[in-house]
Amino acid sequence: MTVYTRTITNFNRLLTPKPLQKPESFAQIHTIANQVKKCSGVKELECVYATMLKTNASQDCFLINQFISCCTSVFHRTDLAVLAFTQMQEPNVFVYNAVIRGFVHCGCPVQALEVYIHMLRAKVFPTSYTFPSLIKACTSLLGLCIGEAVHGQIWKNGFDSHVFVQTALIDFYSTSNKISDSRRVFDEMPERDAFAWTTMVSAHLQVGDLCSARRLFDEMSERNIPTWNTMIDGYARLGNVEAAELLFNEMPARDRISWTIMITCYSQNKQFREALDMFNKMKKSGISPDGVTMTTIGAIKGLANEIVAISAKWRAEKIKSQMAFRSTSGLRASTHLKFVEQG
């Protein structure tokens, strides 16, 4: 018996079922939901839940969904999430989804799968939003057989045409080095969005199949920035600087990642002068470098003086920007205070 199952069993033994009371008014539900969202610490969260227990709001599926999501996504407290879940008499599918998603987010994929089994035994039917988290759990476990079983559940419940579910499957099979299964899922999709295309392009690149990746890329009617970045990064990783550069120059728009990929591409292929030139172009385009970009620049050899000057200038600009923000914020605060004093 697993830790999760024991927890469920123990709490269910202690639980004295209360008759379901009338749900809280909309205003009360809204107030409690806001209190959950505003919690800055675990103690606050526990106090809010204590209030929920007293008012029987702990049986409201919407509120418990919010509470579980806060426990796991903000505070990584699966124990509090499990406590709230097991105190419910009739959790709906959205509560189950929140628990599954929370366990996956907190690095507990086995427990997430156990909750799904518990849900089926309780005769609560999954939604399409149940499966991306389950697939992610299988990806974390590198459990091909379990993932195939979840795939079967997707078919059984009729979610094989949902784009985000199928995209998660593409990623799962590619992570498991089953590129043919990834492609089969992709080819059978009745509809695809840019994210699905990009995931499939990335899957081909992971196994070094640049030709298939490029064919897919060229077939896309609409490409977003992440798609361009994925393809450029594929060329960069294989050392094809010329192809990466050509594709970069064709981009209709670029973000910080686009520039950093090209800087890294030049740097890794010992084209240090080109990397610095690209960095300067990036700044001129109005895009500020981040820590990753500066780490890449800092790793360049042979141009120490220029790099020191660039780094010093970047730090000075960053400090200047922060000081300007603080000054503006202080001015706004003092102006506001003046108006308050004047009534």
UniProtKB/TrEMBL annotation:
Question: What is the recorded name of this protein?
Answer: Uncharacterized protein
Q: Which organism is it from?
A: Pistacia integerrima
Q: Taxonomic lineage per UniProt?
A: Eukaryota, Viridiplantae, Streptophyta, Embryophyta, Tracheophyta
